[in-house]
Amino acid sequence: MEYPSKAVQKAVESFKSLPGIGNKTAVRLVLHLLKQNSDSLKQFELAVEGLRTEVKYCQTCFNLSDHERCAICSSQNRDQGKICVVQDVRDVLAIESTGQFTGAYHVLGGVISPMEGVGPDDLKIAQLVDRVKNGNVSEIIFALSATMEGDTTIFYISKQLKEYQVQITTIAKGIAIGGELEFVDEITLGRSLLSRIPFDV
């Protein structure tokens, strides 16, 4: 398809590079931006630039943060002894939206997947073990997607934590096998957290 402007074409191609954005949606977004005034476009530009220059990863849990430690890890109102282990930041957002969990998090950055070349050393597993070893952690709650890779990751980490006095649980399987956590509705996800069950190695 030919575009009337190379700048429009370049913008459309940039939007299409985002996950879940096809050509029609990309065109619609670009045309919407063209209708905005200069101030709105400047705010949009600054917001996108801020993603690169201002957003950090928490040094404790690897969640997104504006500071060295995120608001959750810094909060005295959260139970830092309960750590919910998730695959990525999207899962933190999904769980936080339920309002059912008041502990801390640990973002692994993925799951063990030999088929995709992802091993334990590629994830934040060693850092989690260090948190258990060095902190007053009473419970590790696994909230990983109910897939073979998720189960493999839970099993591996549980073996690493076996020597420590920490309770290991998983969220209840109200979540469908093979389901991705980010797509689960808030009520089901919240109940799964409240109904978590012990995990035996």
Mean pLDDT: 89
- Largest beta sheet: strand ordering: 4-3-5-6-7
CATH architecture of the largest domain: 3-Layer(aba) Sandwich
Cα-atom Rg, whole angstroms? 20 Å
User: How large is the count of helical segments?
Assistant: 8
Number of beta strands: 7
Helix content: 40-55%
Our count of domains comes out at: 2
What structural category characterises the helix and strand content? alpha/beta
C-alpha end-to-end distance:
56 Å
The level 1 CATH classification of the largest domain is Alpha Beta
Largest sheet: 5 strands, mixed
Strand content: 5-15%
Low-pLDDT segments:
none
**Topology pattern, helix = H, strand = E:** HHHEEHEHEHEHEHE
| Basic shape | elongated
